Amino acid sequence: MRNMPAKKKTKKVNSSPKRGIKYEDKSPGQPELVPIFEEIKKLMKPYKKGSLQEREDSGGQYGLVSEMEIEVNGKKKPEVYFAGVLVQKGYVGFYFMPVYSQPELKKIFQPELLKCLKGKSCFYIKKKDPVLLSQIKDALKLGYEEYKKKGWIK
User: Fold this and answer.
1) Nearest to 151 by CA among 50, 43, 64, 54
2) Considering the domain boundaries, does residue 65 fall inside one?
3) Which of 88, 118, 111 has the alpha carbon at shortest distance from 23?
4) Which pTM was predicted?
């Protein structure tokens, strides 16, 4: 039996979107993602009022959740997620739940923002583009108004 070299152990990469990449990580492309994250977070901050409260405000994560009980399709929920931003590897994820709960909102998004939509409610933002940031600002305003109409925020 000949001696075989031991297999190298590969480092497991956590791809969970909930964890994100912390600022101190040295991932490729990381430095240009932090300003994008900060800009989107700044756009979200004015909506922290009434029942909309901050969640995960650290390490490249920020979210807004309405902390009031609501009913969706006959099921009671203790809270409802509004929006979040998370630094990922290679992009900043902007998670916008009004478009998930009301898919018809997609029809009013501009093509630049719509191109960034991956899945039902996550937008992959890869560059600090004033046009995209303006469209995110408009989407937040619209989403806030829709949640207010539904009685999901106070």
Assistant:
1) 50
2) yes
3) 88
4) 0.77
Give the residue from 107, 115, 108 showing the smallest Cα distance to 138: 108
> What φ, ψ does residue 94 adopt, rounded to 5°?
-110, 110
pLDDT digit string, tens, across residues 85-96: 999 989 999 999
**pLDDT digits over 44-58, tens only?**
999 999 989 998 777
Condensed to tens digits (0 to 9), the pLDDT of residues 88-124 reads: 989 999 999 999 888 888 888 899 999 999 988 999 9
Give the span between the Cα atoms of 116 and 9, in whole angstroms.
Answer: 35
Please state the φ and ψ torsions of residue 144, each to the nearest 5 degrees.
-60, -45
CATH number of the domain where residue 98 is located: 3.90.1150
Q: Burial, 1: exposed, middle or buried (Cβ in 10 Å; 0-12, 13-18, 19+)?
A: exposed
**Domain encompassing residue 65:** 30-150
